[in-house]
Design goal:
Blueprint: E1 6-11, E2 36-40, H1 65-69, E3 79-83, E4 108-113, E5 129-133, E6 141-145
Antiparallel strand pairs: 1-4, 2-3, 5-6
């Protein structure tokens, strides 16, 4: 189709840093100030923090903001996406004796963007595309493109004899 191809980073869970940016120990966890940051790949930039940061909170061994300060161009370069994910947990009595994790998640997706000229599922067997035609408010007509799928298949249960009398066994 001529559209530029790429990838989309979709954040599924985000957590905003609640501490002020100018707080005296913010430098030891400065990566938390960014939901996502993209930098040019550098072999010496392998992590966003250091275990040694806790030894010097005001002047950390590694301050993530330094990665962003060099202002390198990212055009036609290998990139690193620094994605921060998290979830806010408000403690409650059901946390005792342990905190259940069911239903909690933190994630992100890397998804194709303009990667295909059309929905790739069109290449699947039994693909059918129904496009409305005519008046969009009354649905007076439609164009059905079957992509070679025969008219025969239908989604209805087969007629089967059942001997169920209300009890099992």
């Amino acid at each position: 189709m001529g559209a530029k191809k790429g990838y989309r980073i979709q954040l599924g869970s985000m957590l905003k840093q609640l501490y002020p940016e100018d707080w005296i120990i913010t430098p030891i966890f400065s990566w938390t100030l960014y939901q996502m940051a993209v930098t040019k790949y550098k072999a010496n930039e392998t992590q966003s923090s250091s275990i040694y940061n806790q030894m010097s909170p005001t002047v950390p061994q590694l301050d993530f903001r330094d990665y962003l300060m060099d202002d390198d161009s990212i055009l036609n370069e290998d990139l690193v996406a620094w994605v921060t994910i998290g979830a806010m947990h408000v403690p409650h009595s059901e946390d005792l004796p342990n905190t259940a994790t069911a239903g909690n998640s933190a994630n992100f997706f890397i998804r194709p963007f303009n990667y295909f000229d059309q929905d790739p599922s069109i290449g699947s067997t039994n693909a059918i595309l129904i496009t409305p035609t005519g008046d969009p408010y009354t649905f007076t007509g439609q164009k059905v493109e079957r992509y070679g799928t025969p008219v025969g298949p239908q989604c209805v249960p087969k007629d089967q004899k059942t001997d169920f009398k209300g009890v099992y066994g």
